[in-house]
Amino acid sequence: MRKHRRPAADNLREQVMGVTHLADVLQGYGVELPSRTGHVLVQCCLPGHEDARPSLSVDLDKQLWKCFGCGRGGTVFDFVMIMDGVDFAEALRRLATRAGISTDGDSSPGEKFEDRIEHAYDYRDGSGHLLFQVLRLKGKSFVQRQPTDGGGWLYTMAGVTSIPYRLPELLADPEAIVFIVEGEKDADRLASLGLMATTNPGGAGKWRDEHGDYLQGRDVVLLPDNDEPGRKHEESITRSLVGKARSVKIVHLPGLPEKGDVSDWLDAGHTVEELRKLVSETPQFEPSERSPEPTDADAGDEGGQAVRMVNLALGSGAQLFHDTTGDPFARVHIGSHYEILHCGGKAFRNWLGALMWRTDRKAPCASSLQAARNVLEAMARFNGERHELYNRVAWHEEAIWYDLTDPTWRAVRITPSGWEIVDDPPILFRRHKHQVPQVEPVRGGDVHRFLEFVNVRSEGDRILLPVYLVSCFVPEIPHPIPDLHGGHGAAKSTLFRFLRRICDPSCVELLGFPRNIGELVQQLSHHWCAYYDNISRLPDWTSDILCRAVTGDGFSKRELFTDDDDVIYTFRRCVGLNGINVVGRQPDLLDRAITICLEPIPPDARRPETELNAEFERARPEILGGVLDVLVKAMRLRPSVRLPGLPRMADFALWGCAIAQALGYDQKQFLAAYERNAQDRNEEILQSNPVAAAVVAFMDEQQDNEWRGKPTELLGELKRLAETHKLDTECPLWPKAANALTRRLNEVQANLQAEGIQVQFERVSRTRIVVLRKGSENTVTTVITVTEPDNTPETAARAALSYDDSWKDVAKPSLISSSGEAPSDAACDGYDDNDDISQDFDPSDEPNPFELPDDG
């Protein structure tokens, strides 16, 4: 029969679990962990087997472990039971003692944990916000905890930035001398005497390099405890402050007993005036007279330097990880913030070299630097966590994140409840050199102010453009391609520049097409909004890549100086084109586009560019804030959007309805404008595509509205009409053979159907037959039935809306307020996968291997 533990023991177990972190216990048994969150795989120290390779899997979020070498696993109690060879009761007692929870004497095993707290030391950031607490418990043990959103406590430091104690006071008086002591009690004691004092959480041996970043340019005095841990702690702090602090003094208090500290010294009758006098008489620390000694090897040789740099990097708190393609990265502390660097990049190399110089005042040689990078790359790739990195926008934990690309690596978190700027965002973004800092958004802004600066006059386009602008902040959906066209002086480039400054600010605002596929793929990978300026003609291979970049696809190219390694690119991007005429001629590209015609600006309406730019920059924070406000409302509305049918670019249409409503329009107005634009695009395809234009003219001649024949016969008829109607048969879109005609007809089949012409292929005996039929006009929208159930009256009313021309009578709306639940998932892209896009780059017009042979 199963034995039940006593209620008191269960209560004690809960207390121990509340204040014990598996990482701390494992490290106490010699298991070194690269992080305190996520999954890690490390060398196992369990008795009974030896690790030839790492086999101990640790889930630090769930506080569980498992050894794949021997099959054992469990909680922190199981680990102590195995390592110490004790039963559960003894393991519980040992962990309780370690956590400072009494199990004997005056306290019962079920003593309430809060009663054990003697003092709580608050660690607050520069704005006074509480980040975490250090608790001093009875028996002089310490526990750290962080507040939760619900008002409780989480007894772990996972995800918390470590900062110096009394940071708000430290920042408030930048000229004061800073005294560094070994504990919070000593720091408070000195502060009560009018001195500026600080310490680090965890006591001796826990000083981190980033703590010294807060002391840039300060005069610092170290007051170490009189014991061996205090002296080692002093050396660690000194190395960290070299090159940062303006001056450093180390004051050894006279008459201090063994293990004594500054509080003991003051309790012995010494005064703050004596302390000030000691500080004034102590010379400044000079690295030459007390050079820190490398702990692993002599840093004068190359191997020792490499080992030294690896240890310095790991000791700095750098978090090594890899992305979804296996590329190695590091999240490193620079100044008062974190940055994400590619381990193979120049920035990481510079950081590593600067780290050694700041600590040891030694310059590493090139071979040592490369060797250290190789080791750190391997650790990131094989031992680090896996994180997906994004460009500019990302979905994470049911929120949209927007990278401000500012020097302190802040980001905006957007949810259906609102948006906020986060100083220390999670690992989400990778940055590129061309990106420049975004302005800080202003709450209560107005997206419609954007229309004051651009030359868009059509009422339908004045609905679609703000909707598109906001949609650029929605990740993981295909975004339509703005195809701007108009004569000289229509401000097409200005429109793209202003869009770029709101969505994806860059020092390279407008792009030109490179000459090869690899460069274009890399260009698209590095720019969230890739807007191509003044394009006259778009090659077929370029059009195909842009379609894949919009829909979302993978690309690869061979890595330089290797025979077999690939560089992998996977992304979705916001792409735009402009030219005097409609740039996109290929039907597949135009189906993904929004065409906007801009009329030349009259001379009397033109404004100096410097004046326009200055005014736009003043309005940019308000416009950006308005975008975020609208996106919050759209996220609330999106789950309830239902349509009777979905057009091409289905996800944009669904989000577009939600964004339009958040902007103050209704769903009916947006869909009418979007369908009218689709009709205009279809007309453009039929007029610009010589095959489509010839088929339309050919069917106008058929009195019975039907034609049957071989592809060769149809090609002959189309050539005849091309001469009559002066169609361009020399352009790449005109087929040179019958099998090419079949492919061209497939490309424009949907567009001809919208014109009321159906294209079918039949087989009679061994001969392929083309059948053309002309009937009533179809819709340009490809309808896909939505099967998701939603029976609310609000949804039924929205679904009843029909497509019409109501967009013509649109006045500027007033912003509306809506409520709703948060979206259950990020986005759905089930209707627009790869379409007709080939997975291989091949600009040639090769025959389709799956096409039936033609007997004509």
Describe this structure in words.
- With 856 residues, the protein is of the alpha/beta class.
- Among the domains are: 1-119 and 131-158, DNA Primase, Chain A (Alpha-Beta Complex); 167-281, Dna Topoisomerase Vi A Subunit, Chain: A, domain 2 (3-Layer(aba) Sandwich), CATH 3.40.1360.10; 302-386, no CATH class; 690-774, Alpha-Beta Complex (Aspartate Aminotransferase, domain 1), CATH 3.90.1150.
- 35% of the residues lie in helices and 17% in strands.
- It contains 26 helices and 29 strands.
- The strands form eight sheets. It has a four-stranded antiparallel β-sheet, with helices on one face.
- A hairpin with a 2-residue loop joins strand 19 (411-415) and strand 20 (418-422).
- Helix 16 packs parallel to helix 17 (540-551).
- The longest helix has 29 residues, at 609-637.
- It is elongated and about 115 Å long.
- Mean pLDDT is 80; it is low at 1-7, 105-110, 288-300, 559-564 and 777-856.
What is the level-2 CATH architecture name of the domain at 1-119 and 131-158? Alpha-Beta Complex
> What is the CATH class of the domain at 1-119 and 131-158?
Alpha Beta
Assign a percent range to the helix content.
25-40%
- How many helices? The count is 26
List low-pLDDT spans: 1-7, 105-110, 288-300, 559-564, 777-856
Q: Give me the CATH fold name of the domain at 1-119 and 131-158.
A: DNA Primase, Chain A
Sheet with most strands: strand arrangement? 1-2-3-4
- What class do helices, strands and sheet pairing give? alpha/beta
CATH superfamily of the domain at 1-119 and 131-158: Zinc finger, CHC2-typedomain
Main sheet attributes: strand count, strand direction, barrel closure: 4 strands, antiparallel
